[in-house]
Description:
Layout: H1 3-34, H2 40-84, H3 99-133, E1 138-142, E2 148-151, H4 153-159, H5 176-188, E3 192-196, E4 205-211, E5 217-223, H6 225-261, H7 267-298, E6 307-310, H8 311-321, H9 323-329, E7 332-335, E8 342-345, H10 347-364, E9 370-380, E10 383-392, H11 414-419, H12 426-436, E11 441-445, E12 451-461
Parallel strand pairs: 7-9
Antiparallel strand pairs: 1-2, 1-5, 3-4, 4-5, 6-8, 8-12, 9-10, 10-12, 11-12
Amino acid sequence: MTRKVFYKLLGLFLLLLVFHAVVMEAFFHQIVETSAVRSLPVLARESLLSGVVAFLVALPVAAWFSLNISQRLRRLVTFANQIADGNLKVRLEDHHRDEISTLAKVLNSTAVRLDESFAELESRRRELAALLDSMQEGVVAITRDGSVSWSNAVMQRLAGTQIREGRSLVHSVRDPDVLACVEGALKNFEVRYGRATSLAPGRIFEINAAPTPGGGAVAVLHDITSVEAAERSRRDFIANVSHELRTPLTSISGYLETLIDDPNPNPETTREFLGIILKNSNRMNRLTEDLLALAGVESPDYRLSRQPMRASALVRDAIESLAGLVVESGIALESGGAPPTIVLADPDAMTQVFGNLIENAMKYGKSGKRVRVSAQAVIGDTGNEVEFIVRDFGPGIAYEHLNRIFERFYRVDKARSRDSGGTGLGLAIVKHIVQAHGGRVWAESELGMGAAFHFTLPAVSREVGGEGLAGAHPELPAPSIAAPQR
Protein backbone atom coordinates (compact mmCIF):
# COMPACT_ATOMS: atom_id res chain seq x y z
CA MET A 1 0.00 0.00 0.00
CA THR A 2 1.33 3.44 -0.89
CA ARG A 3 2.18 5.98 1.79
CA LYS A 4 -0.74 8.43 1.39
CA VAL A 5 -3.32 5.65 1.25
CA PHE A 6 -1.70 4.05 4.32
CA TYR A 7 -1.89 7.35 6.16
CA LYS A 8 -5.57 7.68 5.25
CA LEU A 9 -6.34 4.21 6.59
CA LEU A 10 -4.30 4.90 9.72
CA GLY A 11 -6.14 8.18 10.28
CA LEU A 12 -9.49 6.44 9.81
CA PHE A 13 -8.45 3.77 12.29
CA LEU A 14 -7.41 6.38 14.86
CA LEU A 15 -10.65 8.27 14.27
CA LEU A 16 -12.62 5.10 14.92
CA LEU A 17 -10.62 4.49 18.09
CA VAL A 18 -11.32 8.02 19.31
CA PHE A 19 -14.99 7.60 18.45
CA HIS A 20 -15.08 4.29 20.28
CA ALA A 21 -13.34 5.84 23.29
CA VAL A 22 -15.85 8.70 23.43
CA VAL A 23 -18.75 6.28 23.23
CA MET A 24 -17.25 4.02 25.86
CA GLU A 25 -16.50 6.98 28.13
CA ALA A 26 -20.10 8.13 27.90
CA PHE A 27 -21.41 4.65 28.64
CA PHE A 28 -18.98 4.08 31.50
CA HIS A 29 -19.79 7.45 32.96
CA GLN A 30 -23.43 6.47 33.05
CA ILE A 31 -22.52 3.07 34.43
CA VAL A 32 -20.52 4.60 37.25
CA GLU A 33 -23.37 6.89 38.17
CA THR A 34 -25.85 4.06 38.21
CA SER A 35 -23.58 1.32 39.46
CA ALA A 36 -25.06 1.54 42.96
CA VAL A 37 -28.47 0.64 41.82
CA ARG A 38 -27.66 -1.76 38.92
CA SER A 39 -26.47 -5.30 39.02
CA LEU A 40 -23.27 -6.55 37.39
CA PRO A 41 -25.01 -8.38 34.52
CA VAL A 42 -26.77 -5.20 33.56
CA LEU A 43 -23.47 -3.36 33.50
CA ALA A 44 -21.89 -6.07 31.35
CA ARG A 45 -24.81 -5.94 28.91
CA GLU A 46 -24.55 -2.19 28.62
CA SER A 47 -20.80 -2.39 28.03
CA LEU A 48 -21.35 -4.93 25.26
CA LEU A 49 -24.06 -2.76 23.75
CA SER A 50 -21.70 0.22 23.65
CA GLY A 51 -19.10 -1.81 21.74
CA VAL A 52 -21.71 -3.03 19.24
CA VAL A 53 -22.93 0.53 18.67
CA ALA A 54 -19.36 1.72 18.08
CA PHE A 55 -18.76 -1.18 15.66
CA LEU A 56 -21.98 -0.53 13.73
CA VAL A 57 -21.06 3.12 13.35
CA ALA A 58 -17.47 2.40 12.26
CA LEU A 59 -18.35 -0.43 9.80
CA PRO A 60 -20.17 1.70 7.14
CA VAL A 61 -17.44 4.32 7.26
CA ALA A 62 -14.72 1.70 6.73
CA ALA A 63 -16.78 -0.04 4.02
CA TRP A 64 -17.35 3.22 2.17
CA PHE A 65 -13.72 4.11 2.30
CA SER A 66 -12.54 0.68 1.14
CA LEU A 67 -15.19 0.60 -1.62
CA ASN A 68 -14.00 3.98 -2.83
CA ILE A 69 -10.41 2.76 -3.06
CA SER A 70 -11.53 -0.49 -4.70
CA GLN A 71 -13.53 1.38 -7.38
CA ARG A 72 -10.59 3.64 -8.16
CA LEU A 73 -8.32 0.61 -8.48
CA ARG A 74 -10.84 -1.13 -10.76
CA ARG A 75 -10.95 1.98 -12.96
CA LEU A 76 -7.15 1.79 -13.20
CA VAL A 77 -7.34 -1.87 -14.27
CA THR A 78 -10.07 -1.12 -16.82
CA PHE A 79 -8.05 1.78 -18.19
CA ALA A 80 -4.93 -0.39 -18.48
CA ASN A 81 -6.92 -3.10 -20.35
CA GLN A 82 -8.26 -0.51 -22.81
CA ILE A 83 -4.74 0.75 -23.47
CA ALA A 84 -3.59 -2.84 -23.99
CA ASP A 85 -6.43 -3.35 -26.51
CA GLY A 86 -5.16 -0.38 -28.55
CA ASN A 87 -7.69 2.27 -27.47
CA LEU A 88 -5.23 5.09 -26.93
CA LYS A 89 -7.88 7.81 -26.92
CA VAL A 90 -9.33 6.77 -23.53
CA ARG A 91 -8.45 8.90 -20.47
CA LEU A 92 -8.76 8.29 -16.68
CA GLU A 93 -10.41 10.91 -14.45
CA ASP A 94 -9.31 11.00 -10.80
CA HIS A 95 -9.49 14.25 -8.81
CA HIS A 96 -8.08 12.97 -5.52
CA ARG A 97 -4.68 13.91 -4.23
CA ASP A 98 -2.96 10.68 -3.39
CA GLU A 99 -0.77 8.05 -5.01
CA ILE A 100 -3.69 6.54 -6.94
CA SER A 101 -4.50 9.89 -8.57
CA THR A 102 -0.78 10.37 -9.30
CA LEU A 103 -0.73 6.94 -10.94
CA ALA A 104 -3.79 7.89 -13.00
CA LYS A 105 -2.05 11.05 -14.23
CA VAL A 106 1.07 9.08 -15.17
CA LEU A 107 -1.03 6.53 -17.06
CA ASN A 108 -2.86 9.35 -18.87
CA SER A 109 0.45 10.91 -19.90
CA THR A 110 1.69 7.52 -21.09
CA ALA A 111 -1.46 7.04 -23.17
CA VAL A 112 -1.04 10.51 -24.72
CA ARG A 113 2.58 9.82 -25.65
CA LEU A 114 1.69 6.41 -27.05
CA ASP A 115 -1.12 7.93 -29.08
CA GLU A 116 1.21 10.59 -30.47
CA SER A 117 3.90 8.00 -31.21
CA PHE A 118 1.47 5.69 -33.01
CA ALA A 119 0.03 8.63 -34.97
CA GLU A 120 3.53 9.65 -36.05
CA LEU A 121 4.37 6.06 -36.99
CA GLU A 122 1.15 5.77 -39.00
CA SER A 123 1.88 9.06 -40.75
CA ARG A 124 5.37 7.90 -41.64
CA ARG A 125 4.00 4.53 -42.77
CA ARG A 126 1.55 6.26 -45.09
CA GLU A 127 4.31 8.52 -46.41
CA LEU A 128 6.54 5.49 -47.00
CA ALA A 129 3.69 3.62 -48.69
CA ALA A 130 2.97 6.64 -50.92
CA LEU A 131 6.66 6.94 -51.75
CA LEU A 132 6.94 3.26 -52.65
CA ASP A 133 3.70 3.39 -54.64
CA SER A 134 5.06 6.32 -56.64
CA MET A 135 8.14 4.31 -57.63
CA GLN A 136 8.42 2.83 -61.08
CA GLU A 137 9.79 -0.35 -59.55
CA GLY A 138 7.76 -3.17 -58.07
CA VAL A 139 8.47 -3.72 -54.35
CA VAL A 140 7.36 -6.67 -52.21
CA ALA A 141 8.28 -7.45 -48.59
CA ILE A 142 8.36 -11.08 -47.46
CA THR A 143 8.31 -12.49 -43.92
CA ARG A 144 10.73 -15.15 -42.74
CA ASP A 145 8.17 -17.89 -43.46
CA GLY A 146 7.83 -16.77 -47.10
CA SER A 147 4.50 -14.97 -46.98
CA VAL A 148 3.83 -11.47 -48.35
CA SER A 149 3.78 -8.75 -45.70
CA TRP A 150 3.47 -5.75 -48.04
CA SER A 151 3.60 -4.84 -51.73
CA ASN A 152 3.36 -1.55 -53.58
CA ALA A 153 0.93 -0.63 -56.34
CA VAL A 154 3.34 -1.50 -59.17
CA MET A 155 3.87 -5.00 -57.81
CA GLN A 156 0.13 -5.46 -57.39
CA ARG A 157 -0.40 -4.51 -61.04
CA LEU A 158 2.26 -6.97 -62.13
CA ALA A 159 1.02 -9.89 -60.04
CA GLY A 160 -2.69 -9.02 -60.23
CA THR A 161 -5.10 -10.28 -57.62
CA GLN A 162 -2.79 -13.16 -56.72
CA ILE A 163 -0.63 -11.08 -54.40
CA ARG A 164 -1.97 -9.95 -51.04
CA GLU A 165 -0.80 -9.71 -47.45
CA GLY A 166 -0.51 -13.02 -45.64
CA ARG A 167 -0.48 -15.08 -48.84
CA SER A 168 2.56 -17.18 -49.66
CA LEU A 169 4.87 -15.61 -52.25
CA VAL A 170 5.05 -18.94 -54.07
CA HIS A 171 1.31 -18.74 -54.70
CA SER A 172 1.44 -15.02 -55.54
CA VAL A 173 4.31 -14.78 -58.02
CA ARG A 174 4.91 -17.55 -60.53
CA ASP A 175 8.21 -16.34 -61.94
CA PRO A 176 10.96 -18.83 -60.92
CA ASP A 177 13.72 -16.20 -61.06
CA VAL A 178 11.93 -13.96 -58.55
CA LEU A 179 11.30 -16.90 -56.22
CA ALA A 180 14.93 -18.06 -56.47
CA CYS A 181 16.30 -14.61 -55.59
CA VAL A 182 13.93 -14.23 -52.62
CA GLU A 183 14.71 -17.73 -51.35
CA GLY A 184 18.43 -17.01 -51.54
CA ALA A 185 17.99 -13.78 -49.55
CA LEU A 186 15.90 -15.56 -46.89
CA LYS A 187 18.12 -18.63 -46.45
CA ASN A 188 21.59 -17.24 -47.04
CA PHE A 189 21.03 -13.71 -45.68
CA GLU A 190 22.72 -12.13 -48.68
CA VAL A 191 21.71 -9.85 -51.54
CA ARG A 192 20.67 -11.74 -54.68
CA TYR A 193 20.35 -10.42 -58.22
CA GLY A 194 18.54 -11.82 -61.21
CA ARG A 195 16.40 -11.20 -64.29
CA ALA A 196 12.72 -12.02 -64.68
CA THR A 197 11.27 -12.54 -68.15
CA SER A 198 8.02 -14.38 -67.44
CA LEU A 199 6.46 -12.10 -64.82
CA ALA A 200 4.73 -9.95 -67.47
CA PRO A 201 4.52 -10.81 -71.16
CA GLY A 202 7.08 -8.95 -73.27
CA ARG A 203 8.74 -7.24 -70.30
CA ILE A 204 12.11 -7.79 -68.67
CA PHE A 205 12.78 -7.03 -64.99
CA GLU A 206 15.99 -6.76 -63.02
CA ILE A 207 15.57 -8.36 -59.57
CA ASN A 208 17.26 -7.19 -56.39
CA ALA A 209 16.38 -9.25 -53.29
CA ALA A 210 17.94 -8.32 -49.93
CA PRO A 211 17.45 -9.68 -46.37
CA THR A 212 15.85 -7.49 -43.70
CA PRO A 213 16.87 -7.27 -40.01
CA GLY A 214 13.72 -9.08 -38.88
CA GLY A 215 14.61 -12.23 -40.80
CA GLY A 216 12.47 -11.47 -43.84
CA ALA A 217 13.42 -10.08 -47.23
CA VAL A 218 12.47 -7.32 -49.63
CA ALA A 219 12.54 -7.69 -53.42
CA VAL A 220 12.69 -4.79 -55.88
CA LEU A 221 11.83 -5.35 -59.54
CA HIS A 222 13.10 -2.75 -61.99
CA ASP A 223 11.63 -2.73 -65.50
CA ILE A 224 14.55 -2.70 -67.95
CA THR A 225 12.52 -3.49 -71.06
CA SER A 226 13.17 -0.09 -72.61
CA VAL A 227 16.85 -0.25 -71.63
CA GLU A 228 17.18 -3.67 -73.25
CA ALA A 229 15.36 -2.44 -76.34
CA ALA A 230 17.63 0.61 -76.54
CA GLU A 231 20.71 -1.55 -76.13
CA ARG A 232 19.47 -3.97 -78.78
CA SER A 233 18.70 -1.04 -81.07
CA ARG A 234 22.18 0.36 -80.48
CA ARG A 235 23.79 -2.97 -81.31
CA ASP A 236 21.65 -3.36 -84.40
CA PHE A 237 22.41 0.19 -85.44
CA ILE A 238 26.16 -0.31 -85.14
CA ALA A 239 25.96 -3.64 -86.95
CA ASN A 240 23.85 -2.16 -89.74
CA VAL A 241 26.05 0.91 -90.17
CA SER A 242 29.15 -1.29 -90.22
CA HIS A 243 27.57 -3.55 -92.80
CA GLU A 244 26.30 -0.70 -94.96
CA LEU A 245 29.73 0.94 -94.95
CA ARG A 246 31.72 -2.26 -95.33
CA THR A 247 29.85 -3.42 -98.44
CA PRO A 248 30.64 -0.37 -100.67
CA LEU A 249 34.10 -0.02 -99.16
CA THR A 250 34.89 -3.63 -100.01
CA SER A 251 33.65 -3.07 -103.54
CA ILE A 252 35.64 0.14 -103.94
CA SER A 253 38.80 -1.45 -102.54
CA GLY A 254 38.44 -4.48 -104.76
CA TYR A 255 38.03 -2.56 -107.99
CA LEU A 256 40.78 -0.11 -107.10
CA GLU A 257 43.21 -2.95 -106.35
CA THR A 258 42.31 -4.54 -109.68
CA LEU A 259 43.01 -1.30 -111.52
CA ILE A 260 46.27 -0.73 -109.65
CA ASP A 261 47.52 -4.29 -110.22
CA ASP A 262 46.73 -4.21 -113.95
CA PRO A 263 49.78 -2.65 -115.74
CA ASN A 264 47.87 -2.25 -119.02
CA PRO A 265 44.24 -1.63 -118.07
CA ASN A 266 41.59 -1.77 -120.76
CA PRO A 267 39.99 1.67 -121.12
CA GLU A 268 36.51 0.20 -121.30
CA THR A 269 37.14 -1.96 -118.25
CA THR A 270 38.64 0.99 -116.41
CA ARG A 271 35.60 3.12 -117.22
CA GLU A 272 33.29 0.34 -116.03
CA PHE A 273 35.21 -0.13 -112.81
CA LEU A 274 35.33 3.61 -112.16
CA GLY A 275 31.56 3.76 -112.69
CA ILE A 276 31.08 1.03 -110.08
CA ILE A 277 33.43 2.86 -107.71
CA LEU A 278 31.48 6.09 -108.25
CA LYS A 279 28.18 4.29 -107.61
CA ASN A 280 29.45 2.87 -104.33
CA SER A 281 30.95 6.22 -103.36
CA ASN A 282 27.58 7.87 -103.95
CA ARG A 283 25.96 5.16 -101.86
CA MET A 284 28.34 5.85 -99.00
CA ASN A 285 27.72 9.57 -99.39
CA ARG A 286 23.94 9.05 -99.20
CA LEU A 287 24.36 6.86 -96.14
CA THR A 288 26.55 9.48 -94.47
CA GLU A 289 24.07 12.24 -95.26
CA ASP A 290 21.15 10.19 -93.96
CA LEU A 291 23.06 9.33 -90.78
CA LEU A 292 23.80 13.01 -90.20
CA ALA A 293 20.17 13.90 -90.92
CA LEU A 294 18.90 11.20 -88.55
CA ALA A 295 21.33 12.30 -85.83
CA GLY A 296 20.10 15.86 -86.30
CA VAL A 297 16.38 15.10 -85.99
CA GLU A 298 16.97 12.76 -83.02
CA SER A 299 19.04 15.36 -81.17
CA PRO A 300 17.39 17.17 -78.22
CA ASP A 301 18.69 20.39 -79.78
CA TYR A 302 16.72 19.85 -82.99
CA ARG A 303 14.65 22.94 -83.69
CA LEU A 304 12.05 23.64 -86.36
CA SER A 305 11.37 26.96 -88.09
CA ARG A 306 7.64 26.52 -88.37
CA GLN A 307 5.43 28.97 -90.21
CA PRO A 308 1.77 28.93 -91.24
CA MET A 309 1.29 27.13 -94.54
CA ARG A 310 -1.67 25.77 -96.42
CA ALA A 311 -1.87 22.01 -96.75
CA SER A 312 -2.56 22.40 -100.46
CA ALA A 313 0.64 24.47 -100.86
CA LEU A 314 2.68 21.75 -99.17
CA VAL A 315 1.31 19.11 -101.53
CA ARG A 316 1.86 21.27 -104.61
CA ASP A 317 5.43 22.19 -103.60
CA ALA A 318 6.25 18.53 -102.97
CA ILE A 319 5.06 17.56 -106.46
CA GLU A 320 6.85 20.46 -108.17
CA SER A 321 10.15 19.86 -106.36
CA LEU A 322 10.32 16.23 -107.53
CA ALA A 323 9.14 16.85 -111.08
CA GLY A 324 12.60 16.19 -112.52
CA LEU A 325 12.94 12.88 -110.72
CA VAL A 326 9.54 11.81 -112.02
CA VAL A 327 10.50 12.52 -115.64
CA GLU A 328 13.59 10.34 -115.36
CA SER A 329 11.76 7.46 -113.67
CA GLY A 330 8.82 7.31 -116.03
CA ILE A 331 6.37 7.20 -113.10
CA ALA A 332 3.41 9.56 -113.02
CA LEU A 333 3.29 11.77 -109.92
CA GLU A 334 -0.25 13.04 -109.43
CA SER A 335 -2.18 15.10 -106.90
CA GLY A 336 -5.18 13.67 -105.14
CA GLY A 337 -6.33 17.05 -103.85
CA ALA A 338 -5.69 18.91 -100.62
CA PRO A 339 -7.70 21.33 -98.43
CA PRO A 340 -6.67 24.96 -97.84
CA THR A 341 -6.41 24.27 -94.11
CA ILE A 342 -3.52 26.05 -92.42
CA VAL A 343 -0.84 24.11 -90.57
CA LEU A 344 2.38 25.17 -88.85
CA ALA A 345 5.26 23.48 -90.65
CA ASP A 346 8.94 23.88 -91.38
CA PRO A 347 9.12 24.09 -95.21
CA ASP A 348 12.60 22.54 -95.44
CA ALA A 349 11.67 19.70 -93.09
CA MET A 350 8.45 19.04 -95.02
CA THR A 351 10.41 18.95 -98.27
CA GLN A 352 12.60 16.28 -96.72
CA VAL A 353 9.56 14.31 -95.52
CA PHE A 354 7.75 14.38 -98.87
CA GLY A 355 11.01 13.72 -100.72
CA ASN A 356 11.75 10.58 -98.70
CA LEU A 357 8.19 9.28 -98.98
CA ILE A 358 7.83 9.95 -102.71
CA GLU A 359 11.27 8.51 -103.54
CA ASN A 360 10.42 5.47 -101.42
CA ALA A 361 7.14 5.04 -103.32
CA MET A 362 8.91 5.36 -106.67
CA LYS A 363 11.55 2.79 -105.75
CA TYR A 364 9.28 0.11 -104.35
CA GLY A 365 6.02 0.86 -106.17
CA LYS A 366 7.39 1.49 -109.65
CA SER A 367 5.36 -1.42 -111.04
CA GLY A 368 2.21 0.63 -110.39
CA LYS A 369 3.51 3.38 -112.72
CA ARG A 370 2.08 6.20 -110.59
CA VAL A 371 2.34 7.83 -107.18
CA ARG A 372 -0.45 9.95 -105.70
CA VAL A 373 0.07 12.71 -103.12
CA SER A 374 -2.99 14.03 -101.31
CA ALA A 375 -4.22 15.54 -98.03
CA GLN A 376 -7.48 15.66 -96.14
CA ALA A 377 -8.78 17.40 -93.04
CA VAL A 378 -9.63 15.07 -90.18
CA ILE A 379 -10.62 15.30 -86.53
CA GLY A 380 -8.04 13.48 -84.44
CA ASP A 381 -7.70 12.71 -80.76
CA THR A 382 -6.09 16.09 -80.09
CA GLY A 383 -8.32 18.22 -82.33
CA ASN A 384 -8.35 19.22 -85.99
CA GLU A 385 -5.54 17.79 -88.09
CA VAL A 386 -4.51 17.52 -91.72
CA GLU A 387 -3.64 14.02 -92.88
CA PHE A 388 -1.17 13.80 -95.77
CA ILE A 389 -1.02 10.63 -97.86
CA VAL A 390 1.62 9.36 -100.28
CA ARG A 391 0.25 6.33 -102.09
CA ASP A 392 1.81 3.97 -104.59
CA PHE A 393 0.13 1.21 -106.60
CA GLY A 394 2.90 -1.38 -106.50
CA PRO A 395 3.10 -4.83 -104.90
CA GLY A 396 2.34 -3.58 -101.39
CA ILE A 397 3.77 -4.51 -97.99
CA ALA A 398 2.92 -7.55 -95.88
CA TYR A 399 1.04 -6.81 -92.67
CA GLU A 400 3.79 -8.08 -90.35
CA HIS A 401 6.19 -5.40 -91.63
CA LEU A 402 3.92 -2.36 -91.22
CA ASN A 403 4.77 -1.70 -87.57
CA ARG A 404 8.53 -1.91 -88.16
CA ILE A 405 9.21 -0.14 -91.43
CA PHE A 406 9.88 3.15 -89.62
CA GLU A 407 12.76 1.59 -87.67
CA ARG A 408 16.30 2.45 -88.65
CA PHE A 409 17.73 0.11 -91.32
CA TYR A 410 14.62 -2.05 -91.35
CA ARG A 411 13.94 -3.40 -94.81
CA VAL A 412 11.10 -5.54 -96.09
CA ASP A 413 13.26 -6.91 -98.91
CA LYS A 414 16.95 -6.38 -98.16
CA ALA A 415 18.20 -7.46 -101.55
CA ARG A 416 15.80 -5.21 -103.47
CA SER A 417 16.55 -2.28 -101.14
CA ARG A 418 20.30 -2.47 -101.74
CA ASP A 419 19.81 -2.84 -105.49
CA SER A 420 17.69 0.31 -105.50
CA GLY A 421 20.27 2.23 -103.49
CA GLY A 422 18.24 2.72 -100.33
CA THR A 423 19.95 3.29 -96.97
CA GLY A 424 17.08 2.14 -94.75
CA LEU A 425 17.03 5.47 -92.89
CA GLY A 426 14.56 7.53 -94.91
CA LEU A 427 11.38 6.44 -93.10
CA ALA A 428 13.08 6.78 -89.70
CA ILE A 429 13.93 10.38 -90.58
CA VAL A 430 10.33 10.98 -91.67
CA LYS A 431 9.02 9.62 -88.37
CA HIS A 432 11.20 11.89 -86.24
CA ILE A 433 10.44 15.02 -88.28
CA VAL A 434 6.69 14.41 -88.16
CA GLN A 435 6.77 13.72 -84.42
CA ALA A 436 8.80 16.92 -83.90
CA HIS A 437 5.87 18.76 -85.58
CA GLY A 438 3.45 17.15 -83.11
CA GLY A 439 2.04 14.73 -85.69
CA ARG A 440 1.72 10.99 -86.21
CA VAL A 441 2.96 8.71 -88.96
CA TRP A 442 1.86 5.22 -90.04
CA ALA A 443 1.56 2.97 -93.07
CA GLU A 444 -1.32 1.01 -94.56
CA SER A 445 -1.01 -1.67 -97.21
CA GLU A 446 -2.37 -4.87 -98.70
CA LEU A 447 -0.33 -7.22 -100.83
CA GLY A 448 -0.98 -6.51 -104.48
CA MET A 449 -2.87 -3.29 -103.71
CA GLY A 450 0.00 -0.86 -103.16
CA ALA A 451 1.01 0.99 -100.01
CA ALA A 452 -0.06 4.29 -98.46
CA PHE A 453 2.09 6.29 -96.04
CA HIS A 454 0.14 8.68 -93.82
CA PHE A 455 1.29 11.48 -91.55
CA THR A 456 -0.59 14.25 -89.77
CA LEU A 457 0.09 17.84 -88.82
CA PRO A 458 -2.03 19.80 -86.32
CA ALA A 459 -4.30 22.32 -88.02
CA VAL A 460 -4.06 25.97 -86.97
CA SER A 461 -7.10 27.27 -88.85
CA ARG A 462 -9.46 26.03 -91.49
CA GLU A 463 -10.18 29.51 -92.84
CA VAL A 464 -9.38 30.01 -96.53
CA GLY A 465 -8.61 33.71 -96.15
CA GLY A 466 -5.53 35.24 -94.57
CA GLU A 467 -2.47 37.11 -95.70
CA GLY A 468 1.20 36.46 -95.19
CA LEU A 469 0.88 32.69 -95.57
CA ALA A 470 3.58 30.65 -97.23
CA GLY A 471 2.41 29.53 -100.66
CA ALA A 472 -0.41 32.09 -100.84
CA HIS A 473 -1.50 31.57 -104.44
CA PRO A 474 -4.25 29.55 -106.21
CA GLU A 475 -4.78 26.29 -104.41
CA LEU A 476 -5.48 22.75 -105.50
CA PRO A 477 -9.08 21.55 -105.30
CA ALA A 478 -10.08 20.70 -101.76
CA PRO A 479 -11.86 17.39 -101.16
CA SER A 480 -14.60 17.00 -98.63
CA ILE A 481 -13.67 16.32 -95.02
CA ALA A 482 -12.89 12.65 -94.53
CA ALA A 483 -13.46 10.40 -91.58
CA PRO A 484 -10.91 10.19 -88.76
CA GLN A 485 -7.86 7.94 -88.95
CA ARG A 486 -8.63 4.41 -89.97
